[in-house]
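HUMAN: Now follow C-alpha cell order:
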Amino acid sequence: MVNENDAVHNPDAALQRVVTVPIDRPAQCFTDATAARVDMKRFLLPIAIALVLIVGGERLLDDTQPGPAIEQSRRAPDAIARAFRNQADNVAVAGEGEVQSILADDTRGSQHQRFILRLSSGQTILIAHNIDIAPRLPQLDRGDRVRFNGIYEWNAKGGVVHWTHHDPQGRHAGGWLEYRGQRYD
C-alpha cells in the first residue's frame, strides 16, 4: 500500500498500486487497469464513430434498395438507369418524362391505364396507372409531359412504374401522377 506522501512525490507508485486518499479529500482510486480502459475508450470511440458513418453513408447513397425514400426528380433518370442495370425491383422513384406512346388499357384484373414515357436520359419506362383506384389521365397524347411517383419494377424493355395511386387500405406509401397541373392519385 502507498501512503499519501509517496503518491504525491512518486506518481509512478500511484499507477502501480491503489492510492488511498484521506476521508477529508475527494476519494479517487485508480489502478493501471482503470487508466488503460480510459485510454482505450478514448482511442476506440472515434474509430467506432467513423465506422458507423462510413457504413451508414453507403446505405444512404445506395438507392437501388427498396425503401420509403422517393428519388428527387432530378436524380430519377440515374436511379432508374441504375435499377434497370441491376435488374432491381421495388425501388421507390419519382421523375418526369415525355409520353412516347399510349397503349391499350390492361383490363385483366385491376384496370390500368398504360403509356410509355421517355426520360431525359433517353430510357423509356412503362407507366401502369391503376384506374380502378385513381382517376385516368384524360386526353393524354404523345409529347405530353407527365410527372410520376411510384415503384419501379425491372423488365427487359426498360421497366415498369406502378403504385402511382394512393393505397385504399393505408398499408403502402402512396404514389401519384401529375399531368397538366393536376395530381392523379
